[in-house]
């Protein structure tokens, strides 16, 4: 077993608590489903938001989920690079797994598909 990182990102349309929390839950659900992981296999989740999202802590949505109470979560501000994608929530989910790097499914949703078009699927 080793630790692997699963990347993901999603955008929201408004800097509103409900939008941030809903998008966070949606992205987490997609990552968990696509990779077949459960909270007990998650070593930690690092979450960043762009500077224009300050209405809520995304980790708040995850802490409310059953089974996720003990998973270490950390939120931070994304580096404010000029002309970068606005209104974006990014994840780095560190998971204990036997999967190879090529078996990990990274999830990019909404306008965040532009960040990694090579990893984005039309179904997402």
Helix coverage percent: 10-25%
Number of continuous helical runs: 2
What is the mean pLDDT?
Answer: 94
Number of strands: 5
CATH topology category name: 60s Ribosomal Protein L30, Chain: A
The percentage of residues in β strands lies in 25-35%
Tell the overall outline. globular
- N/C terminus separation: 28 Å
CATH first level: which class? Alpha Beta
> What would you call the structural class?
alpha/beta
The parts where pLDDT drops under 50 for at least 5 residues are none
What would you say the CATH architecture is? Answer: 2-Layer Sandwich
Strand order of the largest sheet: 3-2-4-1-5
The biggest beta sheet reads: 5 strands, mixed
H/E topology pattern: EHEHEEE
Radius of gyration: 14 Å
Total separate domains: 1
Q: Give the CATH H-level superfamily.
A: RutC-like
Describe this structure in words.
It is a single chain. It is globular, with a radius of gyration of 14 Å. It has a five-stranded mixed beta sheet with strand order 3-2-4-1-5. With 124 residues, it is an alpha/beta fold. It is 19% helix and 28% strand. It is built from two helices and five strands. It starts with a strand and ends in a 16-residue tail after the last strand. The protein has one domain: 2-Layer Sandwich (60s Ribosomal Protein L30, Chain: A), CATH 3.30.1330.
